[in-house]
Structure formats: structure tokens, C-alpha cells
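Database export, one record per block. Field names are fixed; values are copied verbatim from the stored entry.
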Amino acid sequence: MMKWSWLFDSRTQWLGFALGALIVLLGTLMPASSLGSPPGSDKLHHILGFSFWAGLCAWGPSKRFYAFACLIVICGGMIELIQPYVNRIADWKDFIANTVGVSIACFLHLTLTFFKKRGTDTA
């Protein structure tokens, strides 16, 4: 377990939050004309992007993870408010998709926590 302990370090969690924020903010606040049109559903892209962002934070302490998850949901709403100012369209269905993505990451975190506790109980 020692060689994987860095995954559950709070610094790794902060790094995951910052890296995810950078990637998602670039993808959602760049003018649509500068981005290509990737295959698949726009809502699926939102779900995947926000679950990825929140998933990067899922490795650290639970209390901080849930604070990050709430902050990511708030950021999703703020992004939708900002998008009209960067030549994008605000769509509240995107906000719902963002929240679904964060919810998926919460499930991932619960699963990781369960197996982490289970592994330490049997040792």
C-alpha cells in the first residue's frame, strides 16, 4: 500500500483540481469557432469533462473531495453564465450534464473509499 499512498495525498488532490480546472475551462470558454466539432453528443462531452475533473479530485480526503465537488458544480453554473460573453451559447442542460458528471465522480469516490477502508480493515 505504501507505493500507492501518494494517490491519497492532499497535494495530489489539489493538483488534480487545478489540472482539471485548466482543461475544462479551456475547453468550455474558448470561442466555439476555434474548436473543432468532436464526434458524439455535446451533453456526453459535458458529462465526461466534469466527471474527469471531479475524478481527478476523488483520490484525497473525503471532506475536501466533497467541497471540491460542490465547487465544481458551482463552476459549471458560472461557466454557463460566462459563455455568451466568449461567443458561446449558455445552455442550462449543459449545467445538468455537468452535475451528472460530478455525481459520477462522487460514486467513484465512494467506491474508492469503500475499498480503501476494506483493505485497511483486513490487514
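Remark 1: The helical segments are 10-29, 42-56, 62-82, 92-121.
Remark 2: The radius of gyration is 16 Å.
End of record.
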